């Protein structure tokens, strides 16, 4: 184990947020891997890593990480929406629709409602 402190992990988390915002998702994943290795229970770090995987088009790792976050926060509309977008990009429309609809049911934001396409019967 490294001699890194909890403060270092907070700094790494913030740096990972900045890297993701700067369109360097792989750099963000690298920082978050270390944070999560030491703090596997850190749901915020896992959600950020899931978003970074998605941004890096690493869809399977993104899916697994979003699902892990959902196990801990099953009523998190954003995570359902993000998982749905991951399924959509992976060409899995049935699973995508299910999670888009869960997101819209949990939080009727316009973008969630539009993605859920409740008006279409297909």
TrEMBL record:
UniProt key word Metal-binding: no
Gene3D superfamilies: Tetratricopeptide repeat domain
InterPro entries per UniProt: TPR-like_helical_dom_sf, TPR_rpt
Keywords (A to Z) from UniProt: TPR repeat
TPR repeats (start-end): 77-110
Protein name: Tetratricopeptide repeat protein
Species whose genome carries this gene: Streptomyces beijiangensis
């Amino acid at each position: 184990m490294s001699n890194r402190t909890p403060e270092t992990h907070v700094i790494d988390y913030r740096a990972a947020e900045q890297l993701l915002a700067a369109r360097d998702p792989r750099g963000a994943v690298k920082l978050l891997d270390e944070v999560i290795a030491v703090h596997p229970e850190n749901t915020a770090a896992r959600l950020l890593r899931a978003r970074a995987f998605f941004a890096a088009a690493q869809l399977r790792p993104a899916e697994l990480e979003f699902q892990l976050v959902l196990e801990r926060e099953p009523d998190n509309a954003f995570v359902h929406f993000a998982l749905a977008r991951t399924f959509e990009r992976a060409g899995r429309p049935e699973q995508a629709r299910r999670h888009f609809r869960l997101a819209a049911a949990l939080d009727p934001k316009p973008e969630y409602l539009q993605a859920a396409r409740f008006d279409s019967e297909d």
